[in-house]
Write a structure and sequence with these properties.
Mean pLDDT: 98
Strand order of the largest sheet: 2-1-3-4-5
Structural class: alpha/beta
Strand content: 5-15%
Shape: globular
Radius of gyration: 20 Å
Order of helices and strands: HHEHEEHEHEHHHEHEHEHEHH
Number of domains: 2
Helix content: 40-55%
CATH class of the largest domain: Alpha Beta
Number of strands: 9
Oligomer: single chain
CATH superfamily of the largest domain: Glucose-6-phosphate isomerase like protein, domain 1
Number of helices: 13
CATH architecture of the largest domain: 3-Layer(aba) Sandwich
CATH topology of the largest domain: Rossmann fold
Largest sheet: 5 strands, parallel
Low-confidence stretches: none
């Protein structure tokens, strides 16, 4: 029996509602921001809590004047210190690796801001007086992406790293997704049927690597399938040669936007022809939207639908992650 009120399809349907709710939550969060010079930003988090940081780091790369790292580990880089902003992202608030990294950030005197639904992260934030944004509980972390990821943008905004234009773009994305809901589900259904029985390989422009990772994670967890991702132009320097061993066991999903570098678009077109020499199952998703935020959240939503439809096709329970629960249980013994 699931601990959640809905199945994963229900949470995918809630995506645009979550985006709008996220805006209200982020706007209302009150921060006490110290006047200091920041040399770097680190988002530390894993899984469904960490991917938002990865995607946001790419969304804001043209605005940030300091480097932003996404950390998915127990440790933090040596340069993290008093002039660092560390954004701690853990939906449960109890992620082992994230708490370890948070300990290090606290020891080094970094500025800490938290995004969580509760647990030890929230308790520490209250105890130490850290800035935090609390999001609703009772949702699988990967199902809360629409609630979680915008808060990374809000933290960056409240600390003065980015302007507030993202807010309208998030709301525009939600409106566009609602307007295209039926078409998105139909597109996702066609791709899910097409990649069924194969090992999917996901490709995108390097600027959308986080979006590719999100789709890989969703297929892993929701459909209980192995797959991998790579990005252009890097894959043209290694993995493209590996396609000499490609065949119909593999399928390809190419995530594309009109903002992709013109030379990358050429590379994608040429590579697509090479893929088709080895497998007929090559699919393209063209993002809709006028901004990077709109395009990213569009691709993410199509990908989420692909994963839950694929789960239904293969007969997998998209909600359950029993093997992760087992692993956590074993780790808790030592």
């Amino acid at each position: 029996m699931s601990q959640y009120e809905k199945d994963m399809t229900g949470y995918v349907k809630d995506y645009t509602t979550h985006l709008r709710t996220a805006v209200e939550i982020g706007k209302s969060a009150e921060f006490n921001v110290p006047e200091k010079e920041y040399h770097n930003i680190v988002v530390t988090g894993l899984g469904g809590s960490g991917i938002g940081g990865t995607i946001v780091s790419q969304l804001v790369q043209d605005q940030l004047k300091v480097p932003m790292l996404v950390n998915n580990d127990y440790k933090l880089p040596a340069y993290v210190g008093k002039n660092s902003l560390v954004i701690v992202s853990s939906y449960s608030g109890n992620t082992e690796e994230t708490l370890s990294a948070m300990d290090i950030a606290m020891e080094r005197g970094a500025e800490i801001a938290c995004i969580t639904a509760g647990g030890k992260v929230l308790a520490r934030a209250n105890e130490k007086g850290y800035n935090y944004i609390k999001i609703p509980t009772g949702i699988p972390p990967r199902g809360s992406f629409g609630l979680n990821s915008p808060q990374v943008l809000y933290v960056l905004h409240k600390y003065g790293f980015i302007d507030g234009t993202f807010e309208k773009e998030l709301l525009d994305a939600a409106t566009s997704l609602d307007n295209n809901s039926s078409a998105i589900q139909e597109e996702a259904k066609g791709i899910a049927k097409g990649i069924h029985g194969t090992v999917p390989i996901i490709y995108s422009d390097a600027a959308y690597q986080g979006v590719s990772i999100r789709l890989r994670q969703q297929i892993n967890e929701n459909a209980k399938m192995l797959c991998w991702h790579h990005v252009f132009p890097e894959m043209n320097h290694n993995e493209l040669v590996g396609w000499a061993g490609g065949d119909e066991r593999f399928s390809v999903i190419m995530m594309r936007t009109e903002g992709d570098h013109i030379r990358t678009q050429m590379r994608m077109n040429l590579s697509k022809a090479i893929f088709k020499q080895h497998t007929e199952k090559v699919f393209e998703i063209y993002a809709k939207g006028d901004t990077v935020i709109e395009r990213s959240y569009y691709l993410i939503h199509v990908g989420d639908w692909i994963s839950v439809i694929l789960a239904d096709i293969v007969g997998a329970d998209a909600i359950e992650v029993d093997v992760i629960d087992y692993l956590k249980g074993e780790l808790a013994k030592s």
